[in-house]
Amino acid sequence: MKTPIFLFCTFFMISFIACSENYKMFDKPISSRVANYSIECNFDPVNKLIIGTEFITWTNKTNLPVKEMQFHLYMNAFSNENSTFLKELGESPKELRGSWGYCKINKLYLGENVDLTQNISFIQPDDDNKFDSTVVSLKLPDEIQPNESIELTIEFTTKLPPLIERSGYIGSFHMASQWFPKVGVYSDLGWNCHQYHSNSEFFADFGIYDVTIIIPDEFMVGATGILIDEVQMAGNRKRLHYYAEDVHDFAWGADSNFVEINDHSGKTEIRLLAQKEHTGEVVNRILHATKSSHQYFTKRYGQYPYPQITILDSPVFNAVMEYPTLFLTGNFDGYDNPPAPVEPQLVENLFMERLTMHEFGHQWFYGMCANNEFEEAWLDEGLTEYITAKAFEAEYGKIMQNDEFGKPLPVRDFRKQMYIENYTNLPILNYSWHYPTFSEYYVGSYVKPKLLFYTLDNYFGEAVMEEIIYLFFQRWQFNHPKTQDFVDIITEIAGEEIHTIIQQYLETSDFLDYKIESVYQNRVKVSRIGQQIFPVNIEFTFKGNKKISKQWKAEESEITYEFNKEPHLTRVCIDPEQMIEFELNTQNNCWNFDN
Ligand SMILES: [Zn+2]
C-alpha cells in the first residue's frame, strides 16, 4: 500500500489542515484517532436525501496487515422489510412502505481517483440474512501494513426514513444519525462490524470529524462538535461547518421548529435547541438537570473535556439517544397517557429530568469510555443507569417517582420488579441481539447491572463505588474498555473475594434467594435456594431485645446457627438492611416468635 498512500498523502494533508487550521479543540490528541472523517453534504428536506462525499483517513493500529475493510451502512436497516433490524423488531412499520430509508455508496475511491467501487459487496457477519445490507466489505488491492494509513473517498446518498428508531423524520424534525458509511473497528481479532439490530447500539473508533452541511435556511441545526463557520448561500440555503476532535460518531438534527437557548456549566457551553412551545418551564428543567448532573459526574468521575454539549429537545420519544457531545431528551412525562399519581402529595413526576441525566451521563460511559455496545451493552447502560439514579437523588432527593406504569417508587427501584419477574433471563454478558425480546435485553443490560451496582454501593459504601467508577473512567476514557477491564478494577478496589461473585452474576442466569428454613428453640437453619451468592448479614434478636449479627458468605447451600447461652430467640432476619438489591424473594427472609 506504500505507493498510493504516499501519493495521496500530500493532497489529503493539505486539505485536512486547510479545513481545521483555524480551529483546534485540544492542544494534542486525547484519543488514538484511528478513523478520521471529512464529510461534505447537501440536505434536501423535500426528498429526505443527504447527498455527500466523505474523505476517510484510517490507520491500521494493529499488528496485522489489513486486506479488507468493513463499513456500516446503518440506514439500510430501513430499506426493506426483511432487513435484520425489522425482522427482529417483529414488524415492518406501515409508515416505511413507499418511504424506505437507505445509505448507498455511489462511488468509492482509493485516494481520490483509483475506483474501487467494484470491490465492495454486502456481507452479513451476524446472521447470514441475505436481505440485510447494513454491512459492506471492501477488498483492498494492497494490504495496509501495521501503522500505515489509507485514504478513501466515498460518494454516498442517504435517504432518511420516517422516524422509527433514532434516525429519520417526523413533521419538521429530522434526525441524521448513523447516516454516513462508517468504518467498523479493527483489532488483532479482525473486524468488528456488526449488522444493525433492533436491540443494539453502536461501536466505532475515535477520530476527528470535519463536517459541512448545506441546508435550507429555515432549519436550525444541532450537531456533534461545534459550529466553526456558517456561510449564507444562494437559494435560501446556508453552509454549516462543524468540527469535533476525539469523538467516535457524528450526528446532527434539524428542525424549523427549534429555538436556540445558550447557557453554560463551568467552562462547558450548553446549546439547547428546544421546540418553540417548550420555552419556559421545559427549557428550565432540562437546563437544570443538565447542569446539576454535569457537576455531579465531573466532580466524581472526571472532566467533560469538550467545549460544548448540544441538546436537542426531541418531539418524539423514539428519537431520544446519546451521541458524542450531543444528546436528545424531551418532555415525555407519563408518555401518551399520564399516569394518575397514587399519592399526589408524595409524587413529583420528573421523568424529563431523569431522561436528561441518563442521556448526558452517556457522555462519560459510551461517549468517552467507548465500550462495544453490540457485545457488552451492560457496561455503558448499567453504569449510566446507576450514575443517573445517584445524580438524580443527589439533586432532587430520594423522592417517590412514578414509573411508566404509574407506580410510585424511589428511582433506584425502577424496574426492579421487571427483574424479579424475568429472573430466568439470559445473562448480562450477551450480544444484544441474542436476547429474544426487548424486555429481556432491557433487564439484562440495564436493570440487572444497576441492581448489582446498588448492591455493591450498599455493601462497600458509596465512596468505594465512586472510586471504582472514577478509576474505570480515568483508565479507559478515549478507549474501548471490555467487561474484564471493569471487573479487574472492582476486584482491585473492593477485594479479590468479590471477583467470582461478580463473574457469576455477569455470566449466568443463576438467581439469589436466601430463606429461613427452620427455627427450633435457639437453633436456626438458613438455606440458599438459588446458585448465585453474595455475602449476607443475618440478624438474631433475643428476648430483652439483645441482637447478634452474623455474616454468612453463602458458599455452602445451608448453615445452622445455635445460641445455647442466649435468652429465647424472638426474631431472625436475613439481610435486615436490604443490602442485596437482586434477591428474588424477600418474603422468606424473616421469622418472628409471634408467628
Ligand atoms: Zn442509555
What do these coordinates show?
There is one protein chain. With 595 residues, the protein is α+β, with helices and mostly antiparallel strands. It is built from ten helices and 32 strands. An eight-stranded mixed β-sheet has the order 5-4-8-2-1-14-17-16. A hairpin with a 3-residue loop joins β16 and β17.
- Can you list the ligands bound to this structure? zinc ion
- Write down the overall mean pLDDT: 91
The number of distinct β-strands equals 32
Write down the Rg: 26 Å
Q: Main sheet? A: 8 strands, mixed
Give the CATH superfamily of the largest domain. tricorn interacting facor f3 domain
Strand content: 25-35%
Q: Taking strands numbered 1, 2, ... along the chain, how are they ordered across the largest sheet?
A: 5-4-8-2-1-14-17-16
Assigned CATH architecture of the largest domain: Sandwich
Flag low-confidence runs: 1-19, 334-347
What does the overall shape look like? elongated
Distance between the termini: 80 Å
CATH domain class name of the largest domain = Mainly Beta
The total number of structural domains is: 3
What structural class do helix, strand and pairing data support?
A: alpha+beta
Helical residue percent band: 10-25%
Summary, kept brief:
By secondary structure, the protein is of the alpha+beta class.
List its traits.
five-stranded mixed sheet; 3 domains; Neutral Protease, domain 2; alpha+beta; binds zinc ion; 10 helices; 595 residues; eight-stranded mixed sheet; 32 strands; 32% strand; Immunoglobulin-like; disordered N terminus
